[in-house]
Amino acid sequence: DAGVIQSPRHEVTEMGQEVTLRCKPISGHDYLFWYRQTMMRGLELLIYFNNNVPIDDSGMPEDRFSAKMPNASFSTLKIQPSEPRDSAVYFCASRRQGARGTGELFFGEGSRLTVL
Amino acid sequence: GDSVTQMEGPVTLSEEAFLTINCTYTATGYPSLFWYVQYPGEGLQLLLKATKADDKGSNKGFEATYRKETTSFHLEKGSVQVSDSAVYFCALSLNTGGFKTIFGAGTRLFVKA
Known about the structure:
The complex is a heterodimer of chains A (116) and B (113).
Chain A: E1 5-7, E2 10-13, E3 19-24, E4 31-38, E5 42-50, E6 53-56, E7 65-71, E8 74-79, E9 88-95, E10 106-107, E11 111-115
Parallel strand pairs in A: 2-11
Antiparallel strand pairs in A: 1-3, 3-8, 4-5, 4-9, 5-6, 7-8, 9-10, 9-11
Chain B: E1 3-6, E2 11-14, E3 19-21, E4 23-26, E5 32-38, E6 44-50, E7 56-59, E8 62-65, E9 75-77, E10 86-93, E11 101-103, E12 107-112
Parallel strand pairs in B: 2-12
Antiparallel strand pairs in B: 1-4, 3-9, 5-6, 5-10, 7-8, 8-9, 10-11, 10-12
């Protein structure tokens, strides 16, 4: 079975440009999470969805960040305009509904973003 | 608020040495506890978990026991290998509300041959 698929794996862009990161969760998983990983702040939860509905976006750093999940098999994280401090690895993860709090998260390989 | 604190790294050990990585947590209610491992260039993957007090999770020679009285979930391995070099994350998952997972800062482990 395919795991969580993220694209692009690497993105280099200039400050002020729009960045869109994409995620395809594991089929049948009802929760989708976006995390950001940096050396300074570690792994931060940005937002998560349940059945395509955003549940908690309190981790989204600013209005420049937005996330959508138009259907059960696709989500995007958009940064507009991007800034150098947004440089990080962005991970998408998914989990089954029935697992509730005891279930494991399945992570994608991450999208490494560099904003010049 | 809910949080996870784990020992700072990096931790450098020789092959076959004993490993302990400390992890303590603060949470309302009774969370499930996890250790995830991240190898270079990859996403995190589950190493082991425990869902209630006194449970012991184990996998690939690693183990951790859910200690409610000390709010701890320390990771141990009796004899590490070079291939264990990675970053290890302690995490908790709430069993109420949104069931979100909260991670510690991660501990980098280097194992020398």
